[in-house]
Amino acid sequence: MKKPELLVTPSKVSDVLPLIEAGADAFLIGEQTYGIRLAGEFSREDVKQTVQLAHAHHKKVYVAMNAIFHNDRVALLGDYLTFLDGLNVDGVVFGDPAVIMAAKETGVNLNLHWSTETTGTNYYTCNYWGRKGATRAVLAKELNMDSVIDIKENAEVEIEIQVHGMTCMFQSKRTLVGNYFEYQGKQMDVEGRNMEEGLFLHDQERQNKYPIFEDENGTHIMSPNDVCMIDELEEFVDAGIDSFKIDGILKSLSYMTEVTSLYRKAIDLLVTDKEAYEDQKDEWVERIEEIQPVNRSIDTGFFFKETVY
Amino acid sequence: MALLKDGISEVIDGKRVITKKPELLAPAGNLEKLKIAVHYGADAVFIGGKEFGLRSNADNFSIEEMAEGVAFANKYGARIYVTTNIFAHNENMDGLEEYLQGIEGAGVAGIIVADPLIIETCKRVAPKLEVHLSTQQSLSNWKAVQFWKEEGLERVVLARETSALEIKEMKEKVDIEIETFIHGAMCIAYSGRCVLSNHMTARDSNRGGCCQSCRWDYDLYKLEGSEEAPLFSEEDAPFAMSPKDLKLIESIPQMIEMGIDSLKIEGRMKSIHYVATVVSVYRKVIDAYCADPDNFVIQQEWLDELDKCANRDTAPAFFEGVPGTDEQMFGIHGKKTTFDFVGLVLHYDEQEQIVTLQQRNFFKAGDEVEFFGPEIENFTCKIETIWDEKGNELDAARHPLQIVKFKLDQKVYPSNMMRKGK
């Protein structure tokens, strides 16, 4: 049986080795100018070091270029792609077709992963981006398990899903936190504005708490709970999903290494000893519940939910 | 006659005129609104069908109604577009081909699409339809515009986050029709990149279920250790991300000179009064500017007229740069409109000087009212005696859609509207 890749997002270069030791197969990194909602900023030098480190351990590195680009950044795309090609990164994650255009123009030989967070919702469109040059599609988080499996069955590209961590609910180009502070007459600490940690919106009616932060790409609002599918991976593995992502945004390294090592065990057992997986999976969920950050519960996202419209 | 280099204008008899007049594109949630939009001066109208569109709460059009709308629009030389801009899930693929063929058969000019599934299906099964990329794709740079041109699309609707300078550069670099929003409510998120409704109400925002959670109030806190510190005081309004509505009336000349192909008004859920008012004002602005751009001045009465149907305060949003605090609303959830739409003219008897109207809101004898419409200059008058259809005297028009008459000494035309200040 095919073993899916375990993909994690480190927040700095020094996270990489501990996460390799915890069992990660691949890393998604990048910088705000090109990527969105990353766990940390990786300069070009950081990317280079990460690639060296990961490749020395036969692990993969994907670099995020999934921002929504305006004209001002278009001119930068070719140079960055050429830089990444020179490092032999294992993939570039994009949402904006400008990246495909720039990749063609520069003639780089890079795997492209299509990821728009919210709009990867059917297999036809995954395959469409495949025909445009993508080798992988990252699915929207708002899909239920049946849809995910149906997409995988009909996909001509690799399929990646997020199995753990917070997900994005909203991106605005406006500086919504800064605007609110300004409305209150508070002086905004511009330095502190970058990914100021710990801000959240309280939704009184639902008693939910949504993390919110601002960066170069605008304002981002995140899900109130962390997805945790460690005890529900079997159908995905059986369906042949290619990559499982654990998103490390706004998480500590100790949390990430522990969660990564639990998923490592889960995946390994699923392909070798399903009974052992069944026996142990509840303990892993309990362990994750113990280490969840203050205010954040785990749930199963949209995998078992029906949405109407 | 000399064609100027800009491709936008010519000099005729020593006077510059605009020869590339942009399309004025209006929304319509049903057939009545479509007819009003066209009658009041829209060059094109976008409507939603029963499926695959993003306003599942709107009335929306059956294929037969689309055909009727197209027939009506044809008399005015106007075009109809159908929004089919959901991001489809696998289960939505059924029926798509028949649906697109139905739209094509109804004589619709084009569809507005976000999902490549629908783009490619349309090209395959309904090739007569133009394909316009929806703002749901949040198209924000010229290279992505180039991508969609190479995919064979006739037109792209840009992200609402694009500025005048950015649009200008796109227009210069890529030869494709560009459509941008000029008026109406807008998403505060990048369109298509928001799933607040999915999380908060289990309604899929990208398939028409958006319940506008972004317009709700929230409280902003900071987690310090395990302490939750409120970042607001008693007197502050709660955290909000409700944008003021877009209004670019004063930028229309600039947009025309940039060569933008279609100027779009938002609001398929809005009333016929709103559509009529907004369309007629922008019609006047575009016509006046194109006829004599070098002596154009924006008229105060146009601005006043727009305010008569405003639901919220307004702002230029991203056209002039990234909007700040003043372009959002805190502690305000809209504003009361200053006028009520009270009657739709059905008939005017010139000899007797009697107007026949359909009641759309309460009014009574003695009320001061205003008439407007494409054939007339706005005027106000005082209503004297009101009669019902049978000639019985009424103290007030109380019933929705009731047919009433009263004496009016100025000529009005069918589909003119009567409004009343609050």
UniProtKB/TrEMBL annotation, chain A:
Alphabetic keyword roster: Hydrolase
Segments forming a coiled coil: none
Statement: the UniProt record of this protein carries the keyword Hydrolase: yes
InterPro entries according to UniProt: Peptidase_U32, RNA/ubiquinone_mod_enzymes
Keyword Hydrolase: yes
One GO molecular-function entry: hydrolase activity
UniProt-listed Pfam families: Peptidase_U32 (PF01136)
Database matches in PANTHER family: PEPTIDASE U32 FAMILY, TRNA HYDROXYLATION PROTEIN P2
UniProt protein name: Putative hydrolase small subunit
Source lineage: Bacteria, Bacillati, Bacillota, Bacilli, Bacillales
Gene that encodes the chain: yrrN
